Amino acid sequence: MTDTIFGKIIRREIPADIVYEDDLALAFRDVNPQAPTHILIIPKKPIVRLSESSQADTALMGHLLMTVKKVAEQENLSNGYRVVINNGTHGGQTVDHLHLHLLGDRFMGWPPG
Ligand code: 5GP
Predict the structure, then answer these.
(1) Which of 43, 62, 89, 112 is the most interior residue, by most CB within 10 Å?
(2) Where are the alpha helices (DSSP H) in 1-113?
(3) Which CATH number belongs to the domain containing residue 21 in this structure?
């Protein structure tokens, strides 16, 4: 795969407001927040998108969801939050490195646009 802006953030080549990190995942604030709290959770492994993940990534996918839960607790999102994965063109994905959006601190409408 080609490198992305998120690869540069993982390698600390460009700055980001990092709120959580472990061996497998990184979480940082979105540069263009769509809610008062908007954090991106990404695998350090450069998976392009959900639809390009494989069976071998099963445990990592679970880890990313548990990381969302951990970060949401860290951010005190006790009134709830939304988790979004944009996949591919129709999903509205703009960065080709799998990421989970954690959005909170406001009411989320449904259906999403
Ligand atoms: P997508 O549209 O692919 O689901 O989401 C990509 C997200 O990455 C967008 O919400 C966008 O604001 C965010 N983003 C793009 N470039 C950067 C960057 O350089 N730093 C940070 N922190 N977020 C970025």
Answers:
(1) 43
(2) 5-10, 58-74, 88-91
(3) 3.30.428.10
